[in-house]
Amino acid sequence: MITYCIKVRFIIVLLLLGAHYARSQNNTTAYWEPEVALNYRVTPLLKQNFSLSNRNYTYHNNKAQLNIRQIEIAHFSSLTIDPYKSIGLGVQYRFREAFENNKENELRLTQQFNITKKVNSARFGNRFRIEQRIQPSNVVHRFRYRFAIDFPLKGLKMDIGEPYLVATTESLLSVGKSIRPMYDQRLTSQIGWSISQHLKAQLGVQFRMENYTESTEHVFFFLNSLVISI
Question: Residue 116: which of 194, 168, 173, 174 has the closest Cα?
Fold first, then answer.
């Protein structure tokens, strides 16, 4: 119990420090991004995911606000090829023109290879993704690598009604004809709860350093999601 309280307090301190840092930077943007996701297992080896999310400005142009930036719908299918590896394909559509006049909607196609490994109570993941971000005026190809770890905050396994922690770091490279190569780095930490066998809730924060080899922009995301599994 003492170890669990220490872990939770440490995460809360990190969140507060991150929020303070965001307000102290002139080139910082902050968003609130809620999401609802549905996981459906078609066969023991094939599963599908459907999600709906929206992104809202909470701090932009040096002032606090709450304005919708975009709405996204997405579908992803993954196929297990052995107990520790899977491949996947996804499609996503981002509605942005309705909320910002100078922006375009986007169709995104995703190809993925994922490797997982479990050591004691912790699970490690290595995810490789290639994306095509298609807009009316441009096509951007993005390459992504993410390392993830998740583990229970109480006990040695994830039980119903108990919290768990998910932490990730991800590197991204974007290339296209009309843009210079862009390098991004993302750090994410989320606390989740297994409410029932079919329902999970997650709450966390993500910090992004975007285009850090040119003109770095600091971006914070405050995340909350509801995941339904059937």
Answer: 168
The model's pLDDT over 141-170, given as tens digits with 9 standing for 90+, comes to 999 999 999 999 988 788 888 999 999 999
> How far apart are alpha carbons 82 and 194 in whole angstroms?
26
- Per-residue model confidence (pLDDT) at position 2: 47
Contacts of residue 108, Cβ cutoff 8 Å, sequence gap at least 6 = 90, 91, 92, 93, 94, 131, 132, 133, 134
Average pLDDT value for residue range 73-91: 97
> Rounded to an integer, what distance in angstroms lies between the CA atom of residue 1 and that of residue 8?
11
DSSP state of 6: H
pTM, rounded to two decimals:
0.88
The residue among 163, 162, 186 whose CA lies nearest residue 174 is: 186
Residue labelled with tokens 């023109």: 97
Give every CB contact of residue 208 below 8 A, 6+ residues apart in sequence: 184, 185, 186, 187, 217, 218, 219, 220, 221
Exposure class string for 192-217: b at 16+ Cβ within 10 A, else e: bbbeeeeebebebbbbbebbeeeeee
pLDDT at 215: 85
